[in-house]
Write a structure and sequence with these properties.
Immunoglobulin-like; 141 residues; mainly beta; Lamin_tail_dom_sf; Lamin tail domain-containing protein
């Protein structure tokens, strides 16, 4: 199992300045579980060929506390897991790169499990066009 160190801070608005970064804000996804303080804000789960299979998610710490992501996991619809490590500051986002360790494509699901293996966030997506990003922020609190 691969471990991804989460150590880059991205301002979610700066990440979308490039004109090819199109958001898919339609009904292509559904948030199934939204418990806890770590949430997916934006997901790039059906990368273009030119992206060489590199997708990503941006997670947000919705709390006033620093949260350790050590032993947290990203899990796809096929049960493939990637362990996380590192810290996420209060009210900050982190971009987590998803290479070929996680199944990505036109349809599927992605979830975040905490260090106790509890699913704190899960979303299903379907019929994504290549290169489209999902902006989840308007559906979470």
């Amino acid at each position: 199992m691969k471990i991804i160190k989460v150590d880059l801070i991205f301002n979610r608005f700066v990440a979308f300045l490039h004109p090819s970064n199109k958001l898919d804000d339609s009904s292509n996804y559904e948030v199934m579980i939204n418990e806890g303080n770590i949430k997916i804000l934006t997901a790039y789960l059906h990368p273009r060929r030119s992206d060489r299979g590199r997708g990503w998610i941006e997670v947000y710490n919705n709390s006033a506390e620093v949260i350790s992501l050590n032993n947290w996991k990203i899990v796809d619809s096929h049960g493939k897991e990637v362990n996380l490590e590192g810290l996420i500051e209060p009210n900050k986002t982190r971009r987590i790169m998803l290479y070929k360790d996680i199944s990505m494509g036109k349809s599927g699901s992605i979830e975040i499990n905490d260090a106790n293996s509890k699913t704190v966030f899960k979303m299903k997506y379907r019929d994504l066009d290549k290169g489209k990003k999902i902006s989840v922020s308007q559906k979470i609190n």
